[in-house]
Amino acid sequence: MKQVIFLLLTILIFACDSTQEKKYEFGLVIHGGAGTIYRGRFSPEEEAEYIDKLNEALEAGYVMLENGGNAVATVERVINILEDSPLFNAGKGAVFNAEGLNELDASIMDGATMNAGAVGGITKIKNPISLAREVMEKSPHVMMVGDGAEKFASEIGMPFVDPTYFFDNQRWEELQNIRKSEAEEADKKMGTVGCAVLDKYGNLAAGTSTGGMTNKKYGRIGDSPIIGAGTYADNSTCAISATGHGEFFIRNVVTYDISARMKYLEETLQVAANYVINDKLAKITAKGGVISIDKYGNVAMPFNTEGMFRGYKRSGEDAVILLYKE
Ligand code: ASP
To answer: Which CATH number characterizes residue 276's domain?
Structure first.
């Protein structure tokens, strides 16, 4: 009799907890920033450009995963595509700091090994996410910044670009507008990029790349290269990339907090991510959002701004791309 009751209870537990199974063989989720993204801001042609580029990045990542690519390599490739586009505030198209310079930050984390790599204040490397991956894989460190990071890049033979490569007229105009208005909260165009991946082998990885915030002070580093703030991945929980007002994301250790809630409180990804973005951060008017995927292929993309460029594609499904609040 006891055995029958035990068996029935076990069946009941599994039946109730339907999220606890791998629903998708693989999948990826991306963002192209939150912030000053709201209906009416972009023309239909501009919206189409953003959608096309997000779609190109998603499809490239999907094909890699379908062919057995691993999570870390996929994160790097997808972010490279977004870094190379002037549409986003990362790589080409990065915003200018208060001195009229582009200083780029990026990080990547491998949820299988819990290894991580990050770079800050980069001025001459075309794809900061690739340098972050090199720091993770070829150095004993997690984070390298400024000249030291670029010295390491030259030692391992990474290609350099002239800092003028990052010049973008629209970003320059944005800096001038902020300087004129002197309004701290003026159009601080965001547009950071990020990617989180579940591969066929059950491994998770995440990465984030950014130019930071327009008119930031020299030497300012945001949340994007901070492991646990802008990027986090743990095979036992989820992979996450954040975008938003970095100072708040650092103080609230946003991506780690979501993973920790899943681990210690046994919350689902959806519940944990939603609580941190729409409750905890919203209460202190900290603007931004995250994209995330868990080990089962569940996706969560909460944000507390008017819009967030975002999308996902999972095995056997069509891509979903969204720009604004639904
Ligand atoms: N989080 C980035 C930073 O504060 C900005 C962004 O996501 O748009 O540097």
So the answer is: 3.60.20.30
What are the pLDDT digits (tens) for 157-214? 999 999 899 988 888 888 888 888 755 554 555 689 999 999 999 999 999 999 999 9
Q: What angle do CA 279, 281, 282 make, to 5 degrees?
A: 60
Best residue among 95, 193, 195, 224 to mutate for probing ligand 1, ranked by most atoms within 8 Å of CB: 224
**Amino acid making up residue 284:** I
Q: Which residues contact 197 (CB under 8 A, 6 or more apart)?
A: 26, 27, 28, 29, 61, 65, 71, 74, 75, 78, 204, 205, 206, 239, 293
Q: Cα of 68 to ligand 1 centre, how many Å?
A: 31
Q: Which residue segment(s) compose the domain that 233 sits in?
A: 25-324
Token duo for residue 128: 């900061």
Q: Which residue has the tokens 């080409």?
A: 92
